[in-house]
Structure formats: structure tokens, C-alpha cells
């Protein structure tokens, strides 16, 4: 019996002989197989084209490979719901291609099929291999600025910045609509929900933004809060060094914009809606938080600071309170009016006015600075000070500086050096090559020299410095104001108001009576006459026989003698009458002067006795007239007060209306051109207050007017006794 064994084709087998379980391995990183991280793109694996060969996943009977090797065909597929990747086999090479739109990762079964070209049993049993894609967190993205697509930041007032990533704010703006910017349109993340993305703000090296504003994140809103008075583009003259040493006005480095960094982050831990981040699910899964940044510039636009304007009223000018004549070396009261304009306020700092009066003449007297509170907006105040007048005084000018106080309210108990902002080098001076000019050569300019700059900023204290200096003349010097066109200082044209300087006249001098001199003059006349008569008798003895024959015009000796005596007597009388008109003397050489007394403002605290000169037979020297007042003071002590009428300390030229002095004197000076001389005579008036210096009303007063031209010499001209303040 013959047995014939026919060869029947056996189906091939899919097997990875390197593994006991025969599982094909498409990817092996040494630790894990058949798993790749997101972003792999594609991976390929050659499955083999001959059986039983190394690296080939085909297993088949060897006898089926002779005399001709079988041809094998691979196939691969994944379920239709596999979102992680797709598969295909080309030329027995398996390729898995990533689905780039998938951010969740995933595992899909890959079904491998294999067939040979035998007559029967050609298909191998399919093998299913799980292949996994582990998700990788993608960083969020700050979208490029694009107005056409709406990828911009928008303020709550509806506006969009003109320049990309550049925001402009206005100094001291408090409107939430203007200070809030929505960032939602410029954030994106492919693997996180929008709500899971969070913004933060960081500074940059270019700028310390906290000097100008705070920036906080509220959801997708970037919210600014401005530092008061802070700006990124202030001028140098606007830097406020009293406010944190100027850091809020000194601009950022190299730009008006302060750069801040917007930081966009996704979740710190894997989001729950992506379970494939769990290493228990995906062995190679590892979640890392993603970060994106974008710098954005913020400019805080400078807004002009509120600044007052303190000025002298040149329409009123200098008021000398009715004082017309003074002696050289007199401190004369003068009033000026100061007004407040400019901005209404409120102002950041408290200020005071530093006022200095100046007179010419080279007198050398100190001209002190006096400090005053500023008037309120729209109001004026009258300021009274004293100026020193000398013979050569021809003009007066006054300057007013506005100083910033260091305390919230000016502390008057502090010395000026501790009360006001330091000004070194001195402001209001021009600067040329590091050399400072004269005072007020550049009003409003902050001080600077070759080595340093003052921290004071005058243009933050007063808006117009040209009206802070006023001259009494008809014209004033040029005012080269900082940051303004040149103009002139104020000219009040008040030269005619300045009190005239009067010289003390001789008057009736140191001798109380001219009578003895007149007697001497008369005796001299008689002596001359006697000599003449004696001479004539001698001539007659020698020429007694001589006769005058030819000269019919000759005068007889007797007549000549009589004429000489008569002329002498007449001259003596004329001289006597002339001298008497200058100084008629009474008994004991007392000058004869009559007065009129009136109690002005009867009974009032500001009342005074006005004692006027009605008549005098001679002009007396003012400096020789002494007025003495006897009264009982508040303690019951009998007190005396005396002064010369030539006293320059609020006496000569003054009155109770412009002087607090107990005694004042009005001198009716005759105007003789440029020269004026003071004497005590008709029209002059002595004024004595009815209340003593301690305020006591005088009820038993005595006023004594004495003429005292020299030491030890003096005579009482007039005495008023039993004076009472409330009686005529």
C-alpha cells in the first residue's frame, strides 16, 4: 500500500520570538514598550517579509519556503474611535501617525493581520497589541497682537491701545473703567480649559513699576491703581523730591513706558479632565505646568500739577501810610498787597511766603526775610514791613519767594532751615557752564551748578514768578522766567510816594537870645561915629583958615557928623529888628511859641492830644525840641516819657495812624525843590496818645514841651497839666 502525503499550507503565525508572549513590540525605550509621549509625530516598525528570520514577526513552516519562499502580506487597523493615532502598513512596515489635534493622549488596540500566498490556510490569526500615547502638557500661549482677529487687550471703557502691548494711563486717574484691561482675548491653551489659565504680573529690569502704580490680576482683568502724583514722563522741573526722593516722577530707563511682564500659567497639577496624566494609567505620564510671558509697556501720562500764583498788586503798589517826610536813617512802614491766583487747589504741600524789602543807597542795614502764610485762592492780604530810608534812597523793591514746608502744615516753631525744603544751590538763578548767575536772573529755575542740583522745584510752588518782584519805579528789569517767554517784573510807578528825606535845620541855635549881640552892634556904631567926629575936629584945627571957594557941592562938617550918627543909629535899628524877627525872646530867653491843643477821638483807646504850632516868632531847631509826658502807669507809679522830635524811631514824620509810638511829630516842611529842611514852626503838630504805652488811660497827665539847644540849656515852651483822656 502506498501512502501519499500531500503538502498542505499551514497558516503563518504572528509572533515576536524575543518575548515569551510573542507580543510584537513597536517601540521600546528600554523601560517601557509600545508607549510614546505626545508629540511623537509618527513611528514605524518593519514587521518582516520572510518567516523565521531575525527581527521578523512571521513564523511559518520551513518546508513551505522551498522551492520558493512564500510571500507575506501584513495588515493593521485601529478602532474608529481611536483619537490618539492612525495606522497603516506599507511594504510590510507598520507606521503609526499621531493625531496632532488630540491633547488627551490615549491607548488604542492595534490589530495586526498576516497572510501568505499559499493555496489554503493563508491567513494567520490576528494579533491585538495595545499602543499608547501619553499626553504632554503644552504651555499656554499669549496670542500675538492682532486687531483684525480681536487678539487685543481692551479697557473697560471700551478703548483699545493704539500701539500693540502699550497702555497709556493718566496721572492720578481713579476711574476703574480707565484702569481695568481685559486679557481674555490674548490667552490660549490647547490642552487646558480657558478657565484654568491664570495671569500674574512681574517687574522687569527696565522699570520698578511699583514707583508708579500697582498692577493686580482679577480673573482675566489687569487692574491698575496709580500712585498719587506718579508719572513716567514728567519733566525734570516737575520731579517732587519731597515725595520719596522723586522716585514717582523720575522716568523709567530709556523710555516713557514702564515695562511689566505678564505671566500666563496653566494648572499647577494635571487637570482632572485628562486622566491620562495619571502614571497609573500611562506609565510614562509626567505633568509639568506650562508658562508663557509677554511684556507690556505702561505709560502714566503726566498731568500738570495744581500750582498757585502768588503776586504783588502793582496797581496798589507801595503804600507808606501817609508818611511824607522822614529824617535820614528812618525805618518807614510800608504796605503791599499780595493776592493768590493760579489754580484753586488743593495743593500737595503747605507753603509760606518769604518776603524781603530792599532800598538803595548803600546803607548797609540788614534787610531781613520775613515769613507769612499764603492767602487763600481769590483773596488778598496786606503785608506791612519797615524799610530803611537814607538820603540817597531813590527806589524800593520787594521780592517774594514761595517756600515748601516739610511738614503737612508749616511748623512755625521750627527755624526756617528746618521748616522748608532745602534749596542748594539757590534757585531762581541762571546757569552758564556750571556758574550760577545773580538772584532772580532766572525766576522759576531750580538751582544747579557745576557739581550738583537743588532738589527744590520752584515751578511746583508758583506758576508765575515775574509777578513776585515789584519795583517802585516806572519801569522794571527784564524777567527771564524759566519755561516761559521773557517779560518784565512789576513796576508800580510809586517813586513819588516814597517819603522825602529831610535835613535838620539850624533854627534858633544854641544861644537863647540875640539881645546882647544887638547891644554890641549899637555900641560899635556909636564908637565909629565918635572916631569920625574926633578926626573931623583935628582937620578943622589945621585948616581953620582955609576956605572952600570953588566947590559949591561941599557939605559942612556938622551936617556930615550928624549924617554919620544917623546912619549908624538906623543900621543898628535895622539889624536889631531883623534879629528880633528871627528869635524874639521873652523873659529869661524863652522862645515865644503859641500852641493849640485838641483831644482827638475823645475817650477812645486810640485817642491822642494833637498840639499844633499856631505862631512862633522864630523857627526852632527840631532836634532841640523835647516833649516830656508825665503820667501814672498801671502800677500806680508816676512815670515820665521823653523824646526829641527828631527821633527817627517812629516819631519824626509819623502819626498815631501809622505808628504805635507814644509821641509822634508831623513836620510841615516847605518844599524847596530837591532840598528839604526841618525846623520847628507854624503848622507843625505834636501828637501824644491819651493812653500810656502799657494801655493805661491817662487821667492826670502833664505834657511839657522844652527847647533845649545844648547841654544844660533849656527852657520850657509850653506845659499842659491835669490832662485826662476823656476830657477836652
Can you walk through the features of this model?
The protein is 9% helix and 32% strand. It has 4 helices and 42 strands.
Summarize this structure briefly.
With 728 residues, the protein is mainly beta.
SS content category: mainly beta
Give the number of helices: 4
Number of strands: 42
> Which of globular, elongated, flat, extended, rod-shaped describes the shape?
rod-shaped
Task: Give the % helix.
Answer: under 10%
Strand order of the largest sheet: 24-23-26-29-32
**Rounded radius of gyration (Å):** 58 Å
- The fraction of residues in strands falls at 25-35%
What is the mean predicted local confidence, pLDDT? 88
For the terminal residues, how far apart are their CA atoms?
A: 185 Å
Low-confidence stretches: 510-555, 576-588
Helix and strand topology:
Blueprint: E1 13-14, E2 35-37, E3 42-46, E4 58-59, E5 73-77, E6 85-90, E7 93-98, E8 106-115, E9 127-134, E10 141-142, E11 154-155, E12 166-170, H1 176-179, E13 180-182, E14 187-188, E15 198-203, E16 213-218, E17 221-226, E18 258-265, E19 291-301, E20 308-312, E21 325-327, E22 330-342, E23 351-359, E24 370-373, E25 380-389, E26 396-404, H2 416-419, E27 431-432, E28 435-436, E29 469-471, E30 478-479, E31 487-488, E32 490-491, E33 500-504, H3 515-542, H4 557-582, E34 593-600, E35 608-616, E36 625-632, E37 638-644, E38 663-666, E39 677-678, E40 685-689, E41 701-710, E42 713-723
Parallel strand pairs: 2-9, 12-19, 21-33, 29-32, 33-39
Antiparallel strand pairs: 1-4, 3-7, 5-8, 6-7, 8-9, 10-14, 11-13, 13-17, 15-18, 16-17, 18-19, 20-22, 22-25, 23-24, 23-26, 26-29, 27-28, 30-31, 34-35, 35-40, 36-37, 36-41, 38-40, 41-42
Helix pairs in contact: 3-4
Amino acid at each position: 500500500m502506498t501512502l501519499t502525503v500531500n503538502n498542505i499550507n499551514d497558516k503563518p503565525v504572528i509572533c515576536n520570538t524575543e518575548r515569551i508572549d510573542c507580543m510584537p513590540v513597536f517601540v521600546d525605550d528600554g523601560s517601557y514598550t509600545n508607549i510614546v509621549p505626545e508629540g511623537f509625530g509618527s513611528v514605524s516598525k518593519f514587521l518582516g517579509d520572510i518567516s523565521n528570520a531575525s527581527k521578523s514577526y512571521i513564523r511559518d513552516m520551513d518546508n513551505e519556503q522551498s522551492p520558493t519562499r512564500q510571500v507575506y502580506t501584513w495588515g493593521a487597523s485601529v478602532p474608529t474611535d481611536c483619537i490618539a493615532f492612525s495606522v497603516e502598513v506599507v511594504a510590510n512596515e507598520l507606521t503609526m501617525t499621531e493625531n496632532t489635534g488630540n491633547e488627551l493622549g490615549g491607548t488604542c488596540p492595534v490589530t495586526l493581520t498576516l497572510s501568505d500566498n499559499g493555496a489554503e490556510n493563508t491567513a494567520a490569526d490576528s494579533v491585538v497589541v495595545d499602543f499608547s500615547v501619553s499626553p504632554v502638557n503644552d504651555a499656554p500661549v499669549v496670542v500675538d497682537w492682532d486687531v483684525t482677529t480681536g487678539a487685543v487687550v481692551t479697557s473697560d471703557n471700551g478703548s483699545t491701545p493704539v500701539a500693540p502691548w502699550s497702555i497709556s494711563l493718566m496721572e492720578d486717574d481713579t476711574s476703574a473703567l480707565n484702569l481695568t484691561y481685559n486679557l481674555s482675548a490674548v490667552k490660549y491653551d490647547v490642552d487646558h480649559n480657558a478657565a484654568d489659565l491664570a495671569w500674574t504680573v512681574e517687574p522687569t529690569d527696565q522699570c520698578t513699576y511699583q514707583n508708579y502704580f500697582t498692577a493686580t490680576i482679577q480673573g482675566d482683568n489687569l487692574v491698575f491703581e496709580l500712585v498719587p502724583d506718579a508719572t513716567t514722563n514728567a519733566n525734570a522741573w516737575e520731579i517732587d523730591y519731597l515725595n520719596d526722593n522723586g522716585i514717582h516722577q523720575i522716568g523709567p530707563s530709556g523710555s516713557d513706558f514702564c515695562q511689566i511682564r505678564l505671566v500666563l500659567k496653566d494648572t499647577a497639577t494635571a487637570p482632572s479632565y485628562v486622566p491620562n496624566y495619571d502614571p497609573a494609567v500611562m506609565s510614562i505620564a509626567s505633568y509639568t505646568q506650562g508658562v508663557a510671558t509677554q511684556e507690556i509697556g505702561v505709560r502714566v501720562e503726566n498731568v500738570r500739577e495744581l500750582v498757585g500764583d502768588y503776586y504783588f498788586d502793582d496797581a496798589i503798589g507801595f503804600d507808606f501810610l501817609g508818611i511824607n517826610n522822614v529824617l535820614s536813617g528812618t525805618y518807614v512802614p510800608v504796605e503791599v498787597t499780595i493776592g493768590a491766583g493760579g489754580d484753586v487747589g488743593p495743593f500737595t504741600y503747605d507753603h509760606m511766603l518769604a518776603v524781603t524789602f530792599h532800598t538803595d543807597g548803600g546803607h548797609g542795614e540788614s534787610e531781613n526775610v520775613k515769613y507769612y502764610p499764603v492767602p487763600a485762592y481769590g483773596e488778598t492780604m496786606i503785608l506791612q514791613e519797615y524799610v530803611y530810608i537814607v538820603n540817597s534812597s531813590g527806589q524800593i523793591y520787594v521780592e517774594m519767594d514761595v517756600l515748601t514746608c516739610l511738614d503737612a502744615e508749616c511748623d512755625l516753631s521750627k527755624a526756617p532751615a528746618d521748616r522748608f525744603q532745602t534749596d542748594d544751590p539757590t534757585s531762581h538763578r541762571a546757569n552758564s557752564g556750571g556758574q550760577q548767575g545773580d538772584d532772580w536772573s532766572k525766576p522759576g529755575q531750580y538751582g544747579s551748578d557745576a557739581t550738583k542740583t537743588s532738589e527744590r522745584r520752584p515751578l511746583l510752588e508758583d506758576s508765575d514768578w515775574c509777578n513776585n518782584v515789584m519795583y517802585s519805579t516806572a519801569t522794571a528789569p527784564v524777567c527771564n522766567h524759566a519755561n516761559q517767554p521773557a517779560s518784565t517784573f512789576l513796576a508800580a510807578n510809586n517813586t513819588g510816594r516814597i517819603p522825602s528825606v529831610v535835613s535838620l535845620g539850624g533854627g534858633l541855635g544854641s544861644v537863647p537870645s540875640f539881645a546882647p549881640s544887638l547891644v554890641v552892634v549899637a555900641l560899635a556904631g556909636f564908637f565909629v561915629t565918635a572916631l569920625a567926629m574926633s578926626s573931623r575936629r583935628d582937620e578943622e584945627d589945621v585948616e581953620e583958615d582955609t576956605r572952600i571957594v570953588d566947590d559949591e557941592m561941599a557939605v559942612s562938617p556938622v551936617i556930615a557928623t550928624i549924617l554919620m550918627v544917623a546912619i549908624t543909629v538906623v543900621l543898628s535899628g535895622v539889624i536889631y529888628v531883623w534879629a528880633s524877627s528871627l528869635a524874639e525872646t521873652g523873659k529869661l530867653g524863652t522862645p515865644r511859641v503859641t500852641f493849640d491843643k485838641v483831644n482827638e477821638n475823645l475817650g477812645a483807646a486810640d485817642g491822642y492830644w494833637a498840639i499844633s504850632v499856631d505862631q512862633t516868632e522864630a523857627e526852632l531847631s527840631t532836634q532841640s525840641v523835647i516833649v516830656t509826658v508825665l503820667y501814672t502807669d498801671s502800677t500806680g507809679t508816676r512815670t515820665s516819657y521823653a523824646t526829641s522830635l527828631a527821633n527817627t524811631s517812629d516819631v519824626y514824620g509819623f502819626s498815631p495812624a501809622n505808628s504805635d509810638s507814644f509821641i509822634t511829630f508831623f513836620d510841615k516842611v516847605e518844599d524847596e525843590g530837591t532840598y528839604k529842611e526841618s525846623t520847628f514852626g507854624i503848622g507843625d503838630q505834636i501828637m501824644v496818645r491819651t493812653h500810656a504805652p502799657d494801655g493805661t488811660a491817662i487821667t492826670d497827665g502833664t505834657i511839657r514841651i522844652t527847647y533845649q539847644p545844648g547841654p544844660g540849656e533849656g527852657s520850657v515852651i509850653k506845659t499842659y497839666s491835669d490832662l485826662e483822656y476823656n476830657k477836652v
